[in-house]
């Protein structure tokens, strides 16, 4: 009886209908970032996702355009100041995170490729960094799956946990924005957490995280130096995420043309809905196959590394060091 019900729920038509209904719910006033992510994951685990490839492609596009839209509600001067202020902090935190991650991988005797991918994903911007580094080191499919699965699970946890911790500790909007940008892997979850905490937190988190994401480029170049192409193959092209440039251009236009600020606020509000839809589609990637792909050692490495980064950055921010510099 139960198996028959499960089989019906996992019928492709039912799964597709559930996905469409979920997207529609995300556009209503009752939706929120954590609800969207949880709903997507729940539907994927119960019904499966027969459109995983398509929803994955849509996710990147919707997330990118939504980030671009967030720029319409920000002042370019403030964005630039935050980026310059966080330069030293970003360099130090990325270096220490990479060192700690690789040390943990050695201690746990994790697979070298998986260990590097998890470390890079934690240090910079989760899945985007893993996707950029994987072809450079010619990572095996199982290493990519394990690292992406680990980062995905921790991202989901962070989206739910961080706002509660921030409120419990009485973090300011700026403090929470910095903490989420430094300690949460993917840009989507960083923005989702900021979206829950408040508009100022969202602006700070988005700015700091996007500035951090630019470090994919120099890190990829550095790693490619130690992993030269085999058999005369051409090196993989290194691309700067287009949405970062779009975000800066949009912020510049609204900043330099004050008459567009009212329209910019409307675009930013629309971008919020887009982010919630993107988080739902990200949750829809949380299929049983994703869960099985995460091995014990990669997950332990990713979890311990994340807890270390989360605790240290919170302690530094809570003490007022980063906040004083930023403000």
Any overview of this molecule?
The protein is mostly helical. The chain is built from 18 helices and no strands. It starts with a helix and ends with a helix. The chain has one domain. It is globular, with a radius of gyration of 20 Å. Helix content is about 80%, strand content about 0%. Helix 8 packs parallel to helix 13. It has helices at about 1-10, 10-25, 35-45, 50-70, 75-85, 85-110, 110-125, 125-135, 140-170, 175-185, 185-195, 200-215, 215-225, 240-255, 260-285, 290-295, 295-320, 320-325.
Query: Would you count the extended β strands for me?
Result: 0
Report the sheet-strand fraction.
Answer: under 5%
- Tally of separate helices: 18
The figure for the number of domains is 1
As a whole number of angstroms, the C-alpha radius of gyration is 20 Å
The largest β sheet comes out as:
none
Helical content class: over 70%
């Amino acid at each position: 009886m139960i198996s028959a019900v499960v089989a019906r729920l996992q019928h492709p038509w039912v799964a597709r209908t559930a996905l469409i209904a979920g997207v529609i719910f995300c556009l209503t006033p009752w939706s929120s970032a954590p609800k969207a992510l949880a709903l997507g994951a729940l539907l994927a685990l119960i019904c499966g996702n027969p459109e995983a490839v398509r929803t994955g492609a849509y996710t990147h596009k919707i997330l990118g355009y939504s980030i671009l839209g967030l720029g319409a509600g920000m002042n370019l001067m403030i964005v630039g100041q935050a980026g310059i202020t966080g330069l030293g902090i970003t360099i130090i935190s990325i270096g220490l995170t990479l060192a700690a991650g690789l040390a943990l991988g050695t201690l746990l005797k994790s697979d070298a490729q998986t260990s590097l991918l998890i470390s890079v994903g934690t240090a910079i911007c989760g899945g985007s960094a893993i996707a950029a580094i994987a072809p450079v080191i010619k990572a095996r499919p199982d290493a990519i799956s394990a690292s992406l699965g680990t980062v995905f699970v921790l991202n989901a946890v962070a989206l739910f946990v961080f706002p509660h911790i921030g409120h419990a500790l009485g973090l300011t909007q700026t403090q929470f924005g910095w903490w989420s940008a430094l300690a949460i892997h993917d840009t989507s979850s960083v923005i989702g957490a900021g979206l829950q905490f408040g508009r100022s937190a969202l602006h700070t988190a988005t700015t700091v995280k996007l500035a951090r994401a630019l470090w994919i480029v120099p890190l990829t170049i550095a790693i490619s130096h130690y992993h030269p192409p085999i058999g005369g193959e051409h090196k993989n092209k290194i691309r700067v995420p287009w949405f970062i440039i779009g975000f800066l251009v949009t912020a510049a236009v609204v900043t330099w043309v004050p008459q567009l600020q009212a329209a910019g606020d409307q675009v930013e509000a629309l971008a919020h809905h887009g982010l919630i839809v993107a988080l739902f589609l990200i949750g829809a990637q949380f299929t049983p196959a994703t869960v099985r792909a995460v091995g014990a050692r990669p997950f332990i490495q990713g979890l311990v590394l994340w807890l270390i980064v989360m605790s240290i950055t919170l302690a530094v921010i809570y003490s007022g060091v980063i906040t004083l510099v930023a403000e």
